[in-house]
Write a structure and sequence with these properties.
With about 210 residues, the protein is an alpha+beta fold. The protein contains 10 helices and 4 strands.
Length: about 210
């Protein structure tokens, strides 16, 4: 999936070292060169939309709530405009410390290959790259599922949504849980990546670490 979306003419020999995936950036060292693959980070509304879409599909709701992402679910991500695998190199800012500027170098090719292998083993690698993580994703799908069930339930219009109800009542138990707070800095980092893409981004990257 990753290799098809991001074609690279070659792959540099040698191991991929110092692998890291964080919101917006995949980084690694290949044959002594520092490689960085930067993508726009999805905003909170994007995640809400895709998680609501997954929760609304019975075939995806169960696996999503279990923290799994079937390959077919990528179609849902694409439909709501948040592809887990960027459609080609266009939306990405790719950089390598080698001298080959005019095309995709073998070091980038090696990182794309590694990303594909890791995403096959755990697609949440791609979720993290796009700005979320497994537990946050599961919580969002759970909240969306609870909202949808509440709306569709036979007594939904009379069900109390917020305070005032007996905390032990079924209505409160089944009501919408609060969404977990976003990791600090995520939304801002996403906005910065979006604002600066697709130009040279390395100078802007320390924003991910700056907030201490
Ligand atoms: Zn290179």
């Amino acid at each position: 999936m990753v290799a098809e979306a991001l074609p690279a003419p070659e792959r540099a020999p040698g191991p991929v070292e110092r692998w890291s995936v964080r919101p917006g950036e995949v980084g690694a060292r290949v044959s002594g060169h520092e490689v960085s693959l930067i993508r726009p980070v999805a905003g909170e509304e994007d995640w809400e939309r895709v998680c609501a879409a997954l929760a609304s599909q019975p075939v995806f709701r169960g696996p999503s709530l279990d923290g799994r992402l079937p390959v077919e679910s990528e179609r849902v991500f694409v439909v709501v405009g948040l592809p887990l695998v960027p459609p080609g190199w266009g939306p990405l800012a790719a950089s390598c410390s080698c001298a080959q500027w005019r095309s995709v170098c073998g070091h980038l090719g090696a990182v794309v290959e590694e990303l594909g292998v890791r995403a096959d083993a755990d697609p949440f690698v791609l979720v993290r790259w796009a700005g979320s993580d497994r537990s946050e994703f599961v919580a969002r799908v759970g909240a969306a599922a609870a909202r949808q069930d509440g709306r569709e339930g036979p007594d939904a219009p009379h069900r109390p949504r917020t305070g005032g109800a007996d905390p032990a009542s079924a209505a409160v138990f089944w009501s919408v849980p609060d969404l977990p707070a976003l990791p600090e800095g995520l939304a801002e980092a996403g906005a910065r990546v979006r604002a600066s893409a697709p130009g040279p981004l390395l100078d802007g990257l320390p924003v991910f670490d700056r907030r201490t």
